[in-house]
Write a structure and sequence with these properties.
149 residues
């Protein structure tokens, strides 16, 4: 058994020595997705302190936090779609765009919840969202439904 055949047996179909590595397995990518999201939430929580904003403009805090909850729902949808997509082989470039785009969206949602750096957080959220949409549009290896018969 050669090395490519061994990689296909252990890493699954679609992986070879030249196209994938142990760090590009579905389990590793999913772990990176979740750990990066947790790190983004933690960093955004450390950066943000809503007390100053609440003291100056408490009336605007409720709609902004509502917007943060809507963005969190979008982020959860993106994470679940990526969880589904990362079960199959994905190129390194697309995996990087998928992961970083999701992490940006998570951090931006948390910053908006913390009422900190709101304009930058909104821009970051939308940049991450557009990156995910463009990556999904260019992803030709994504699992597709086939017509039966």
């Amino acid at each position: 058994m050669n090395l490519s055949a061994l990689a296909r047996v252990h890493l699954g179909p679609g992986y070879s020595v030249s196209s994938g590595s142990a760090f590009a397995t579905p389990a590793w990518l999913r772990l990176m997705l979740l750990s990066g999201c947790a790190a983004a939430v933690a960093l955004a929580a450390l950066i943000g302190d809503p007390a100053a904003y609440l003291a100056s403009d408490a009336e605007l805090a409720t709609p902004l936090r509502g917007m943060a909850l809507i963005k969190a729902g979008i982020v959860l949808t993106a994470i679940s779609a990526l969880w589904w997509r990362l079960r199959r082989p994905v190129s390194t470039r697309l995996a990087l765009v998928y992961l970083v785009g999701t992490w940006w969206m998570v951090a931006a949602s948390m910053l908006i919840w913390q009422l900190t750096l709101i304009p930058m957080a909104a821009l970051t959220f939308h940049v991450g969202e557009i990156a995910l949409l463009l990556a999904a549009w260019r992803d030709w290896e994504a699992p597709r439904r086939t017509e039966a018969g």
